[in-house]
Fold each of these.
Amino acid sequence: MGPGLFISFEGIDGSGKSTQARMLAERLRQQHRDVVLTREPGGSPGAEEIRALVLTGEPGRWSAETEILLFTAARRDHLEKTIEPALARGAIVISDRFADSTRIYQGATRGDLRSIVDRLHKMVIGREPDLTFVIDMDPAAALARGLARKSGEDRFEEFGLGFQETLRHGFLALAREHADRCLLIDGQREPEAVAAEVAALALERIGDLA
Ligand code: ADP
Ligand code: TYD
């Protein structure tokens, strides 16, 4: 058993991360690979409880500082209970969001809190994905897709279009900053076209590791 491979999907709300994470998982399972498809906030029973706290209610319910603590607590549980055991047995873990979301949503939208995010990450998480797909697209189009779903977990989408534009620029800068692991993907295409590019890049990376 190898050390596994940890893949994350990042991007603004409605950019197609969940769709693409699912399509990649299906593609790799068809090849009989051991795949764990998971998500943040959530991915373990404890972290799913925290998810309900952070994603429902009034947009102003939590300050950005409190959110950093809640999302990081959820991530620690997700890492301990789901991600690390899967990687240890050699699985491919595909997570719909990970720490980059905290860097951008909490670290770069309501004041510059990035150093708090980074210090806390170093102290209690200390791990990055091997590969991160940053799905990029126009926030107005993504917001229209996202709100059409009305999931009841729309607290961040309710911050509005300006917020999503700030997020997009944050993710683009992050992809440049972490060019070693981040691959920028144009999300404004048919789902199958995006999935084909994502699968080719993931298989290339899996091949490099084999
Ligand atoms: P995210 O996880 O980034 O919020 P989703 O994968 O949940 O995004 O997609 C948001 C909505 O847009 C869903 O209703 C989904 O079916 C739709 N969708 C996803 N990818 C595409 C695409 N490439 N083109 C058009 N609609 C899409
Ligand atoms: P998600 O379910 O991926 O929402 P969407 O499908 O709309 O992209 O994530 C829920 C929300 O949580 C999303 O608006 C981003 C936010 N979030 C943070 O603010 N910080 C974090 O660390 C994470 C993981 C998510």
Amino acid sequence: MRYSELSDMYQELEDNSSRLRKTEILSNFLKKLNGGESIYLLQGKAFPDYSEKEFGISERLCIKALSKASGIVGDRIIDDWKKIGDLGEVAEKVIGKKKQNTLFSKSLSVRKVLDNLRKLPELEGKGTIGRKLSLISELLTSASGKEAKYIIRTLIGDLRIGVASGTIRDAIVQTYSNSDEKKEVSGIVQEAYDKTNDFALIFEKMRKGIDELKKIQLNPGHPIKLMLALKADNLEDGFKRVGRPAAFEYKYDGFRMLINKDKKGKVKIFTRRLDNVTNQFPDVAGYIRDHIKADSFIIDSEAIGYDPKSLKYRPFEAISQRIKRKHNIEKLVKELPIEVNVFDILYLNGKSLIGEPFEKRTKIMRDLIKPYKHKIRCSHQLITSDEKKAEKFYKDALKDNQEGLMIKNLHSRYVPGARVGHMLKLKPAENELDLVITGGEYGKGKRAGILSSFTLSCRDEGKFLEIGKASTGLKEKEELGLSFKELNDRLRRFIVKESGRGAVIKPKIIVTIIYQNIQRSPTYKSGFALRFPRIVRLRDDKGLNDVASLKEISDDYVRHELKVHY
Ligand code: ATP
């Protein structure tokens, strides 16, 4: 297939904001597709979602490649970039202009684009930058303006076609089912995706028939999307929604860890956003070896930090460095030790357990793990129908410096990738949201030249919509594992455009904020405004999919309004 066909479709998707229309466009495209791999390009990638491979291309390198392919000096391209803001559009202009002036036009195939993109993460060592530059400029030299726009946007991870994974799922369903089977097929496709995180694989199986798709199984060592919780208002609400008796567990204040051991004994550890952090946690591999006797398994857990001297548990921020840092691991293991609190099991000795009821899974897990304090143990759990007992358990969790409780239905299966109503979370602070920073404003006086106010955005179908502005709760010297200056340095790498004191920032840095309440407001694109938002945490453990969606915010708003008025 020609890359021009793909970029025409990108353009169509970009021009149409309706999800239904996007699904139709994608479905027509899928019908023309031979191999499934091009689906990755629809997601702005060259690899499946579970892959950790990254292009590792900066905007600066793209500018160099554009300059090389067009013969226009870098500074002029940078000037355009400052004016236009989107490097993709700059590429369209620069390469488009050059194309008009040359007769040379070798047409670009999707295969060639995929091949070159796939070589990028493999390059290492001396001369890497030069080789990356050649791979990119080779593509740009054969590209039209429009093609160049999407190549550049793919490279910098900002495709802007507003296609989330749900739309790709719907397009696959639309292509391969008729209207009365749609709902069932959609469930099957979603389940296969949650188990594999690979749309190309799903597409290939689907072409052979739905039965092939149904055969897809969990595979230890291959990350799967985790099950997420909804909020409970209080214990009574919790009981009402999950039934009696319910399982109550401490909601630990740490970070999620999905621990896998495959048939060959290889341990792999993934975070909630499916990053492979195995190398950062040799201590956990040791706990697994010593305390879980099984050939293969997948367990779901929360890792919490403790002080190596006093052995007191510490908040998440204190240990967040352990996820990111790639060097001096042994030193960090000693300074920032963690305890793994296992709360679910998904797979054991060649058998998937996700279809089993929670009650059974938790028993299997508790029989399997030999607990050892400050290393690995099973989550504190109370199964009860009694609200008073649950209330005391909730107080104990808070006294033990944990965040609150999880409330779980005893009969439910594990649903990868879904925010489910059979697992609820109960925490004292209700007004909390995870948002992404998409802009900033430089301060005045002592704070001149420092970004001190931040635009916060929520997520809506692959786009990010502003919802408020916050100055940070971070202090100059920070206890959040990151100083104010470091936050500035990080954000600056993602500045797309500056005008006056304002800056547009690429959505990369995710923060938890607390706020007083939400109002409807025309000021921001989301249609809502947060009152008194304050940044309380940086969430390196979360990805853009975890940013609060406009729908969640709007539902919360409606629920809250109902509570106030009735
Ligand atoms: P929050 O931001 O409130 O921590 P979250 O957005 O990280 O929540 P949710 O799925 O909404 O994620 O809440 C569940 C999270 O709580 C899990 O992702 C997990 O990291 C954590 N957790 C802590 N203890 C438990 C437990 N016993 N069972 C399940 N999840 C737990």
